[in-house]
Amino acid sequence: MPGEKASDSRPTQLTLTPRSKFELDYIAPPAALSDYITTLYHFRCGETVIHDIQPAAIGHLTLFPYGKGEMRFLDGRVEPSHEVALLTPFSIAAPFMVNGPFHSIGAVMSPLGWAALTGMDAGEHGNRLYRAADWLGDDVETKGAALCQAYREGTITGKQCADGLCDYIAASLKPVNTRHAELIKQTTRWLSSDLNPDLGQFYDRIPYSERQTQRLVERYFGLPPRALARKYRALRAAGLMSLPNLSPEYEAKLGEAFYDQSHMIREIRLFAGRTPKRLTGDESPYLTEMLDLRNFREIDPIGPTDHPR
């Protein structure tokens, strides 16, 4: 089923689980996998019901050793969680609910990593929560279920679960067309160049026709170039606005990136699931962590990345 594209529809406001109720640790990927995995994470929350929002994002391979829930999409779909799951690249924010306690350990895949691991068209499969075995085969279910069981028994830690995911990913990567890999690299450089990168300059540097470039970028990133730049503009703006302090320099960058304040609010709400006013404090905990500028390692973040949380 083709993934939905960005529109002006907006995620429903929710009362979210307070940040004080969960723990989230980031784990650096092995150097050998740094081109394929942007980060790994270990999330824990002991609440009986957890509500939050998944911002528009790149793909994840995720384990859910504790907790069962569902994710809601703008087209009305409601998809259940799976113990070993593929969260495909998202073009919009999506709210989720989990019956807790809820623990997850996952690998956030770069666009190159998603292609090398899954071979799946990110545009055709965008905005989905899949059972991983349905697309990657039984080995991922066997490996993932064993890791979840060992984690529940207390014989391995979240970090060791993440290491196990890395072992599976390293053994499962397949080559990506060399020219396509270069296109992915050029696309990330273009996205990194500005909050509003110049589309004409991007097409000029790519050795494909404009139509071919649009098709290939959508295949690997989930959206064609113009829509992709729009998504990252909103996410990076949200990341900057969630900082406790923002310098005049970055305030000016934000002001220049959008037509006006109402335009910025609409865009951030569509892609991040929250208005700027609700990006700070304890009101949107998981979302605030996921919008941390350090999570945009698939592109070079515009803004400070050594800020405190």
Low-pLDDT ranges = 1-12, 304-309
**Strand percentage, roughly?**
15-25%
- Compute the separation of the termini in Å: 38 Å
- Overall mean pLDDT stands at 85
Largest sheet: 8 strands, antiparallel
The percentage helix is 25-40%
Structure overview:
The protein is of the alpha+beta class and 309 residues long. The protein is 39% helix and 19% strand. The protein contains 11 helices and 8 strands. Strands 1, 2, 3, 4, 5, 6, 7 and 8 form an 8-stranded antiparallel β-sheet that branches. The longest helix is centred in the last third of the chain and has 17 residues. The protein is globular, with a radius of gyration of 18 Å. The chain starts with 21 loop residues before the first strand and ends in a 19-residue tail after the last helix. The N terminus and C terminus are likely disordered.
